[in-house]
Amino acid sequence: MNAETCISAIKASKKHNFICDETIAGLVEREIAKYKSEKDVIKSVKTKLHQITGAFIDESDIKKAYGILQKICGNLENTDGNLQKACSNLESTDDNLQNNYSLPQNAYGFSQKGYDIHQNTYDILQSSHDLSEATDRQSMGEDIRSILSLHASTRERMDFMEEMFKDIFTVTGRNCSILDIACGFNPFFLALYSESDREKYYASDINVKLIDLLNYFFSVSNINGHAFASDILYKIPDVQVQNVFLFKIIPLLEQQQKGYSKVLARRLKSEFFTITFPTRSLSGKNVGMYRFYNELMHNYFTGDEFEYCLQKEYFNEALYIIRRRK
């Protein structure tokens, strides 16, 4: 049985050609040991890839997110352009101002007289710009939420996401460096509730097209970020950060390689680990998941190695923030 043939067949599928190579190669290597035919291996790998990614996001969602981001960028450029034009118009009236003439009506509809008009009008323009910026921020917030709703994981936590991130940053500090593993659409949320001077934000995912989208987003936002394609099962990122995000990824890791989460925590270079688990199924059913994952968490991340800084349950997600003991 030829592994390369299986890999090529899987990557030829439109549904799976955006998955990073190491994920596909790793799954093929494992499944070849279980089946006798290439057809069965390919079928099994495709099923597992759907379990890993297909239930959460597809290519059309990424295209929609690109469209929304381009809309946001266009609105911000228009706002800056209007302010520059208004200020340019104001500067052209300086000669009239010196002669105590009336200021011609500008783009904002204001007309004043007197020598103090120059400063007053700049104040008016700035106030108008601040109002425009506030409106743009509100509009951008709505657009970002539209993007977040495209991904199943972030859509599920929309109602408590702000509360959850506030809880996280209260413990770790708002400006800490972050490695977000299997990030999905998490980075978009930081555009709304993050400080502009944050230390480096690293985001990894197995979806190559998502990685391209996130790097485009970082390039047009104020986030000091870098996204890269990586499968944590086959390569642990060699970066030093203050906080690692492991949002709802441990169940998937354990499903593929039992006990791997313990290895991961020991090898990742971080002071804090922010870990979440689902407490309800995708259909919204409560099937005892919290009890199961709470036990797993305390068995894997023991008190002699980690300090439990925060443990909290939201509507459908449990949050743990642990700190490596020195």
Q: How would you describe the overall organization of this protein?
A:
With 326 residues, the chain is α/β, with parallel strands linked by helices. The protein folds into 3 domains: 3-54, Ubiquitin-associated (UBA) domain (Helicase, Ruva Protein, domain 3); 61-148; 151-324, Vaccinia Virus protein VP39 (Rossmann fold). Helices cover 53% and strands 15% of the residues. The protein has 13 helices and 7 strands. The chain has helices at 3-11, 21-32, 38-54, 59-91, 94-98, 117-148, 152-156, 161-172, 186-193, 208-220, 250-256, 260-267, 289-300, and strands at residues 178-181, 201-205, 225-229, 240-247, 269-278, 306-313, 317-324. It has a 7-stranded mixed sheet, with helices on both faces. Helix 9 (186-193) links the parallel strand 1 (178-181) and strand 2 (201-205). Helix 1 packs across helix 2 (21-32), helix 2 (21-32) packs across helix 3 (38-54) and helix 4 runs parallel beside helix 10. The longest helix has 33 residues, at 59-91. The two termini are 48 Å apart.
Total count of strands = 7
Main sheet characteristics: 7 strands, mixed
In CATH, what is the class of the largest domain?
A: Alpha Beta
What is the number of domains?
3
Strand order of the largest sheet: 3-2-1-4-5-7-6
Provide the CATH superfamily of the largest domain.
Vaccinia Virus protein VP39
Beta percentage is 5-15%
Question: How big is the Rg?
Answer: 25 Å
